[in-house]
Design a protein that fits this description.
Blueprint: H1 8-23, H2 25-40, H3 44-66, H4 72-92, H5 112-115, H6 123-128
């Protein structure tokens, strides 16, 4: 930030914002995964609602944290960090519904005949294919 012309005060504010934001980075990554799973599991409306409510909560919490609570830029960072958590909570509803096909109780074969074919796709391929070669 200093290279872009920021003075010491702006640089300190930027550091605070960045530290808070980086602390919550795993939630942003999980949000993308949750949203993709829900969208691809025939619940695109719920994924969209989760995304929209996460964004809306960011706007509302920005105001609440920055002005009434007087937290300034740190409040803006916390509001931004809270938005993927809101989205994850909304998308999590899908995993408790009956139409969910992601978290079905299915067994995964551990014999050599079911593990070897997955080697062509890598270890991740083993996660998605059962011993009878049907996808979850």
């Amino acid at each position: 930030m200093h290279m872009m012309g920021a003075d010491a005060g702006i640089t300190q504010l930027g550091r605070t914002y960045t530290r808070i934001f980086l602390l919550f980075t795993p939630f942003f990554m999980m949000n993308y995964v949750f949203s993709a799973f829900v969208r691809n599991d025939n619940a695109p409306t719920l994924a969209m609602i989760g995304t929209m409510m996460g964004s809306f909560s960011n706007v509302v919490l920005d105001y609440v944290f920055m002005f009434p609570m007087g937290m300034g830029l740190a409040g803006a960072a916390l509001a931004t960090a809270a938005s993927p958590i809101v989205s994850i909570l909304i998308c999590s509803i899908h995993f408790f519904q009956k139409k969910n096909t992601v978290c079905k109780d299915q067994t995964i074969g551990t014999d050599a005949y079911s593990i070897l074919p997955a080697g062509g796709a890598g270890i991740c391929g083993r996660i998605f294919f059962r011993s009878d070669n049907n996808a979850f």
